Amino acid sequence: MDKAQKLELLAASAKYDVSCSSSGRRHQNPKAGGSAAVAGCCHSWSEDGRCISLLKILFSNACIYDCAFCVNRRSNDIPRATFTVDEVAELTLEFYRRNYIEGLFLSSGIWRSPDDTMECLARVAETLRFRHRFRGYIHLKAIPGADPVLIRRAGLAADRLSVNIELPTEKSLLLLAPDKNRQAILGPMKQIGKRIREHGAERKKSRRVPAFAPAGQSTQLVVGASPENDLQILNLSQSLYDRFRLKRVYYSAYVPVNEDRRLPGRCLPPVGREHRLYQADWLLRFYGFRAEEILSAAQPDLDEELDPKTAWALRNPAFFPVEVNGAGYETLLRVPGIGVLSAKRILAARRHGSLDLEDLARIGVVLKRARYFITCRGRFGAESGFDQAPERLRLELLAGSKRGPERGQLRLF
Amino acid sequence: MPRYRYDGSFEGLLTAIQEILARGERGAEILGAEDGNLPLFPPELVATRQQAARSLLEAFSAYGGKKGLRLVVLLFLADGAPRERLILDYVRLTLQQEREIGGWLTHPVVAEAVAVAGRVAGEVHRFKGLLRFRQLADGSLYAPFEPDHNIAAALAPHFARRLRGERWLIHDCRRGLGIFWDGRELVPAAVAGGIADPELSEGEDFFQACWRSYHHHISVAERRNPNLQRHFMPKRYWRYLTEFNGV
Fold first, then answer.
1. pLDDT surpasses 50 at B51
2. Whether B188 and B211 share a structural domain
């Protein structure tokens, strides 16, 4: 099989991996050339509307495992291919040179054994970094069950490492991915988190200490293949952010690729649910929310019709209205419809004078939802403000959104 | 209403602004070099004076700081906007207020300036990703494109860092403007409009085909969403994108 055929096959096998971010890398200015922007950079968008920032491929799809939801499982009769280290390095360098990509995201099926696979991934990263002096972004999958020494080598060459947690609970993992177990996944995560902290602390003292996965670690899990509710998923994310200081948890709406009685039957990928989970995830990471504020045992799933912040606001009328001319940043962030950008603009504009509703519109704050929850110089933003019953307000908010139930991949910003 | 004309350079514009501020003229208008239709009473041509430009810039950045300077430069690159008026008003307001005013978004002058500068900055960021190089027979790289705004010069430093060890040319085909990188410094040059049709390197076709194939196969068919794709990557940019059979 030639390089082009392998690329076709191993790109198609990698497409269900969600992460494509190239952010978090500190600026480097080496003589060899090459750089990756701190904020990350999208180079293209595929037909499904997802950003392409990295060359996202598998090293091999010849997997010895048999996970129910995975297209590359051992029991599937599909063409198999395995790259060589130099083939991946060449493709990465040539794509990078032409500005197609920001770097490489290399994952793999379990080829021969976890150690063999991890060793290949580490060697690709080392070849790029140390032989070719490649300064683009490298994201490697850490393979559960691989020797910690190999994972260490990977972290010294890569910008980001990730271990896929795959499914929200041990029970589902046991059922759907019988070759994997929770401990083998959490082990490397813990190891990586510890090393990132250690190297980070050491590097503050001396620049000679090599960086270890300076862009941090992330993970992903499949949503909709197993019966867990959103509360379980968000609690898991929360604890991953708290305990392992993950940069990102990615959620991947389950796309049925296999017929398997352990799985839900033919269905559309639950992209609406995935979108709400991302919104809730954003609340955890940038808005100062805790999982238990967003969901509870009484309400274990996210509202399909309303975004999680609006849903929270309706449950917490005592918090409102918020006076935009007096509230602090964290308080403004809790107003539905006011995001990070709007909150910062409000703070900046307030230094030059107090704001009324027209001013807010002028500086670009979207008032569709926000006006029900704010006062400007003591005046309510909407005629029928937050004094009405939450159920009526809910209806009014829903009537205000022209779009019906949302479909397809949605924008996050 | 007094009218001024300048030679189209950044320094020329600053000289004209300096002149207007020194005379304390209200409602003065500055025409760009490209504004062809000369009225009955031709505008006064301001000769560019480096000294005047520099002293205005210093006075401005004493209050506006780096942030203000960046905004003014971005405005100067804007196309399809009254950039001379925007810069004049913004500089004047900053000097009047004696402070940095970038956050004063309720003021119409600031709001318009920030909005236009934001569009320019957005396009610069966009093309950090969307610019496509092809390798020529001599091993150098060539990237033709047609940005909405005149951003080639703002984009080039990014690629000077990224492709430091290569030789390349970024070519704004619409404005006939090229920027070379010879491995050491950036050299702007007039390059005749239209795309050159140079001989490509041996491997070029192969890697272009690989990229097109990759681009197609990475998409998840069940989640097809061409509207979202076009939202991020408007059609007007497609002509130069390798993944869409671009030139």
1. yes
2. yes
- Kindly tell me if the per-residue pLDDT of B232 is higher than 80: yes
Q: What is the pLDDT of residues A375-409, one digit of tens each?
A: 999 888 877 666 667 778 888 888 766 554 444 55
Q: Is A75 on the interface with B (CB under 8 A)?
A: no
Same domain for B140 and B116: no
DSSP code, position A55: E
Asked if residue B119 and residue B39 are part of one domain, the reply reads yes
Same domain, B109 and B175: no
Domains held by chain B: number: 2
Extract the tokens encoding B223. 């989640």
Task: Tell how strand A54-58 and strand A103-107 pair up.
Answer: parallel
Same domain, yes or no: B225 and B141:
yes
In chain A, positions 341-370, which contact chain B (CB-CB < 8 Å)? 345, 348-349, 351-353, 355, 359, 362-364
Residue A29 reports pLDDT greater than 50: no
Query: Residue A351: which of B103, B159, B224 has the nearest Cβ?
Result: B103
Quote the Cα angle for A114-A219-A110, to 5°. 20
pLDDT at residue A224 tops 80: yes
Residue A255 to residue B223, Cβ atoms within 8 A? yes
Looking at this predicted complex, what is its ipTM? 0.91
Strands B168-172 and B177-181, by their bridges, are: antiparallel
Q: How many helices (H) and strands (E) does chain B have?
A: 7, 8
Residue of B nearest to A253 (CA): B223
Cβ of B223 and A91 within 8 Å? no
How far is it, in rounded angstroms, from Cα A290 to Cα A234?
A: 9
- Which of left, alpha, beta for A344 (phi over 0: left; psi -120 to 50: alpha)? alpha
CA distance A14 to chain B (A): 7
Which among A8, A47, A349 has CB closest to B229? A47
The proportion of chain A whose per-residue pLDDT surpasses 90, expressed as a percent, equals 67
**Domain limits for position B70:** 3-124
Q: Residues B29-39: pLDDT tens digits?
A: 888 766 666 66
Residues B155 and B179 reside in one and the same domain? yes
Residues B148 and B234 in one domain: yes
Q: Do A349 and B219 touch (CB under 8 A)?
A: no
Specify the 3-state DSSP secondary structure of A396: helix
A78 touches chain B (CB under 8 A): no
> B213–A99: do the CB atoms touch at under 8 Å?
no
Q: Is residue A31 pLDDT above 60, yes or no?
A: no
What tokens were used for A30? 């080496």
User: Domains in chain A, please, with CATH?
Assistant: 3-286 (3.20.20.70), 308-400 (no CATH)
Domain end (from B124, B139, B173): B124
Q: Which residues of B are less than 8 Å from A352 in CB distance?
A: 101, 103-104, 106-107
Domain end among B97, B124, B151: B124
Residue B27 pLDDT grade (very low, low, confident, very high; cuts 50, 70, 90)? confident
pLDDT 10s digits, A167-194: 999 999 999 988 888 888 999 999 999 9
Q: Which pLDDT score, from 0 to 100, does residue A412 have?
A: 53
- The CA distance from A307 to A12, in Å, is 32
Asked if A413 is an interface residue toward chain B (Cβ–Cβ < 8 A), one would say no
Check the CA dihedral A99-A100-A101-A105 and report its sign: negative
- Same domain? B159 vs B115: no
Q: What is the mean pLDDT of residues A239-247?
A: 92
Pairing outcome for strands B44-45 and B3-5: parallel
